[in-house]
Amino acid sequence: MSARIDTFSVGDTRQCELQVSPKDVEIFSQLSGDTNPLHMDEAAANEYGFPRRVAHGMIALGAISRLIGTELPGPGALWVAQDVQFAGPVFVGDSLSARVTVEQISKAAGLLVLRTEVVNTKTAEVVLSGTAKVRILGQPARHTDRSNNSMERTALVTGGSRGLGRAIAEGLAADGHKVLIHYVERDSDARSVSEAIVASGGRAAVCQADLSRADGADILFERAQDVFGGVDIIVNNATPAIQRKPALDWTWPEFQTYLDVYVRSTLKLTQLAAPAMQKRGFGRVINVLSSYAVGVPPARLAAYVTAKSALAGLSRALAVELGPMGITVNMLAPSMVVTEQTASAGERARQLAAAQSPMRRIASVEDVAVAACFLAGERAGFITGVVLPVAGGEIMP
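Below the sequence we write its predicted C-alpha cells.
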C-alpha cells in the first residue's frame, strides 16, 4: 500500500544496518561495470594506502535507497533528487548504520525532503551525508471534487472588517475555512462580518490590533493561536487611511506608518506563522498590493506607493525562502476598487478609471476576493512569487 504524505511529520526517522561483504562488491561491480582495482584487489588497495578493499560508495547509498523504498516514505516513493557527500571511504567488512530523517514536507507537491546519513558503526565516523527529495506517488494533482480546498484551514485576514477585507473573509469562509477577522477601530463592523459568517454555517472570530505598533502583529497572532490553534492562510490587507499630498510635503513619520502596517506587520506575522506552516507542509501568504505599485503611480500618493512597492519586494524575497517549506507567497494588485477608501476620490476619478480599463468598469470587492480565495486554495500550490493583477486588463505584465 502506498504511503500517504499526511502521515509524516518533520523529525520522523528510520534507520537500518548493513554489513559490507565481498559479495556485495562483486555484485555491484557486475551491475555497474566498475572494476576499479581499489574495489576488486586488496593488494592494489594496499598500494594506494588503504588497509582493505574500498567498497563502492553507491553500496552505502544503496542502504538509503532501501530505507526510502521500504520504510520512509516506503512503497510508492519516487526518489527524484539526491545531494550527497562521501566523507570517507567504506571498506569491505565494515558495518554501517544508515538513517533518513524528514526535514521538510510539501503536501501540495507530494514531496518529502529527507536528511540522509550513513555512519561507520565501529569508528562512529560519518561516511556519507546529504539531502534527498522524494515524491510520494498516488497523491492527486487534482481533487475529484470541484472545491478549491480539500480541508478546513484557518485564515487570518487583516483589515477584514469592511470593504475588500470583508469580501475576502466571507469568501474564505464560504470555502470552508475558519476566519479570524482583524480590525483596528470598527468593532461593530468586524462583529457584523463574524456574525454573518456564523449565520451561514461558518466559524469566525474577531481581533483588535493596531498594526502600526511594534506589538500589533504579536497580539493578532496570539489571538489566532488562542481561538483556532494556529494560522494556515494570511491575507495582509490592512491599510492606514489613504492620505494624498504633494511628495515634498510628506514627513518621514507619515511614511513610517505605511511601512509599519504594510511591511513590518507582514514580515512579523509570516515569521510567527511559518514554523507551524512548515511542519504541516502547507502555508499561504497573500499580500494585497495595488496596481499603483506595478504600473505608473498617480501623483500625491508617495508614501502609499513606496510602502506597497516595499511590500512587493518583501513578498518576492519571502517566496524564494519559504517555497521549500511548502509555503507560497503571492500578491494581488487590484486597480481601483469600489470601497469606502476610494469613495473619497470622487465620481469623476472612478469614471476615468473605468474608461482606462479594457473592461470599461472598475473592480468590485468580489472580483478581488475570488482571486484571493484561489491563491489560498490547494490548486494554487505551485504558484508563488507572482503579482496577480485584478485590474480588468489595465495592467498586462
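The two ends are 46 Å apart (CA to CA).
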